[in-house]
Design brief:
By secondary structure, the chain is α+β, with helices and mostly antiparallel strands. The protein is built from ten helices and twelve strands. A five-stranded antiparallel sheet has the order 1-2-3-5-4, with helices on both faces. The protein has a three-stranded antiparallel sheet with strand order 6-10-11. The longest helix is centred in the middle third of the chain and has 20 residues, at about 235-255. The radius of gyration is 24 Å and the shape is globular. The N and C termini lie far apart (about 95 Å). Residues about 5-90 have low confidence and may be disordered.
Length: about 400
C-alpha cells in the first residue's frame, strides 16, 4: 500500500474537520486575534477561536458597546482567562440561551468596563438580546445567584433593573449569569435632571417595604469584598451592620496589613463602640431594599415611550437595611470611581425631596464610607488604609 503524501493527508483531514466538527469543540488559542471575519473554509477552524477585538467602554456592563465583534455560528466562542480544556462551557451558555427560546445566536459584542472581575458580553439572538457575565477564575455561581436575587428584590421594590434569566456553573470551570439586555444612553445620566430623576426613583424603592421584611439581612449570600457576606437576618440594624458588615472587613484589614494598620488597630474598640452608638439613632427605621453599592457606574438611563427616560440600577449586592446606606457616596473622599463620574448634588437633592434627611445623617454616612473603603482594601490592597485611619480618628473624636 502506497503512503499518501503528507500535504494531501493534511488537506483531507482539514476538509473533514471543517465539514463535520463543530467549531465549539475546537481547542483554545492563547492569542487574541485583533479583528477578522470568519472564513468557513479556513483551516484555522482547527486551531483558532474566532472572537472580535476587545471593546473598551467607560460605562458599566449593562451598556452594550457600539462597535461590533465578529462571530458566526461555526466560529462562536468566548475566550478569556480560563482553565485549560475544551469549550463545553460555551455550549452550556448556548444551551441556556436556547432554553429561553431566543432563536439562533447572530452576533456577540464583548464589553469591557473598569473595576470588574468578570467578562461581559452582549449576545444578539434572533428573537432577543441578552447580557451575559462570565467568571472563569473560580466558581462564581454563589456570587451570580446573589446578584440575581438582588436584581429581583429591587425590581419587586419598583426599580427598573435588568431581569435575571439564567445562572449556573460552566463545566470547564467558572460560572455565568444571563440577564435582560438594556441599551442604556451613555450620556443621559451626566445631566442634573436625569440624576434628580434617579434620586427620586431610588427613594421610592427604599420606601417600598413589604410587611414580610421586618428584619435586616438578605435571603441568599452576596459578596463582601471577595468573600460571601453574612446575610443572616437580624432584628437590630446596629448589631447587623457592626457584626455582619463593618467588623469583619475591619478585622480582615488589621490581619492582612499589621504594620500599615497599627494606628487603626489602636482605635478598633472605640471605633466599633461609637459606630454602634451612632447607628442606634436609626433603630426605628424599617428595612429597605438596598442596592448595596450605589455609585454612578452602577446606574443609568434607558429610553422609554413618549420621549421619557427610565432610571436603571444594576450590578447590585443587595440586602435589607437602613436606606441611608445607599447614600454613602455623597462627598466620597476619593477623586475617581470606576467611571470617572460621580453622583451629583442633583441626585441627593432629588432623593431627599422624597425622603428628608434625618438627624445624625452625616455621622452615619462616615461609618458607611469607611465600610466601602474597607471593601476596597479587601479587593485591592493597603492603598486606602491611611485614609481609613484618618477618617476613623476624626470619627472617634467627633
Amino acid at each position: 500500500m502506497r503512503l499518501l503524501p503528507l500535504a494531501l493527508v493534511v488537506t483531507l483531514f482539514s476538509t473533514v474537520c471543517i465539514r463535520f466538527v463543530p467549531a465549539a469543540f475546537v481547542g483554545p488559542n492563547p492569542v487574541l486575534h485583533k479583528s477578522f471575519k470568519i472564513n468557513p473554509k479556513s483551516t484555522e477552524l482547527l486551531t483558532g477561536r474566532f472572537q472580535g477585538h476587545r471593546i473598551r467602554s467607560a460605562t458599566s456592563g449593562v451598556l452594550g458597546a457600539r462597535a461590533e465583534s465578529y462571530s458566526k455560528e461555526e466560529g462562536f466562542d468566548i475566550d478569556g482567562p480560563r482553565k485549560a480544556g475544551g469549550s463545553t462551557g460555551d455550549l452550556a451558555i448556548l444551551g441556556a440561551l436556547r432554553s429561553l427560546r431566543s432563536g439562533d445566536l447572530q452576533q456577540t459584542r464583548e464589553v469591557w468596563f473598569p473595576g470588574t472581575t468578570n467578562e461581559a458580553f452582549k449576545f444578539q439572538c434572533q428573537k432577543a438580546d441578552f447580557f451575559v457575565k462570565i467568571n472563569r477564575h473560580f466558581s462564581a455561581k454563589e456570587m451570580f445567584e446573589g446578584e440575581a436575587a438582588s436584581l429581583n428584590a429591587m425590581r419587586f421594590g419598583g426599580m427598573r433593573c435588568p431581569a435575571p434569566l439564567r445562572f449556573g456553573d460552566l463545566p470547564d470551570g467558572g460560572s455565568y449569569l444571563i440577564t435582560e439586555y438594556m441599551d442604556l444612553d451613555p450620556f443621559a445620566l451626566t445631566t442634573a435632571m436625569m440624576q434628580e430623576t434617579l434620586g427620586k426613583e431610588v427613594a421610592k424603592m427604599h420606601l417600598h417595604q413589604p410587611e414580610r421584611h421586618q428584619f435586616y439581612g438578605f435571603g441568599v449570600p452576596t459578596l463582601l469584598g471577595r468573600k460571601p457576606a453574612n446575610n443572616n437576618f437580624c432584628a437590630s440594624w446596629s448589631s447587623f451592620f457592626i457584626k455582619q458588615r463593618l467588623e469583619p472587613l475591619l478585622d480582615q484589614a488589621l490581619r492582612r496589613f499589621p504594620y500599615k494598620a497599627q494606628k487603626l488597630r489602636m482605635m478598633r474598640e472605640e471605633l466599633l463602640t461609637k459606630s454602634f452608638q451612632a447607628l442606634e439613632d436609626v433603630q426605628d427605621c424599617r428595612p429597605s431594599i438596598l442596592h448595596g453599592d450605589l455609585q454612578f457606574s452602577n446606574a443609568g438611563m434607558v429610553e422609554a415611550p413618549y420621549n421619557r427616560f427610565d432610571a436603571v440600577l444594576f450590578d447590585p449586592c443587595s440586602f435589607y437595611g437602613n436606606s441611608e446606606f445607599d447614600l454613602a457616596y455623597e462627598g466620597w473622599p476619593l477623586h475617581d470611581l470606576h467611571s470617572g463620574h460621580r453622583l451629583s448634588d442633583a441626585f441627593f437633592d432629588g432623593y431627599h425631596s422624597v425622603i428628608p434627611r434625618r438627624k445624625g445623617h452625616n455621622r452615619r454616612k462616615e461609618i458607611y464610607q469607611m465600610f466601602h473603603l474597607l471593601k476596597l482594601v479587601a479587593k485591592s490592597g493597603a492603598e486606602h488604609v491611611p485614609l481609613i485611619t484618618e477618617m476613623a480618628r476624626s470619627f472617634v473624636r467627633g
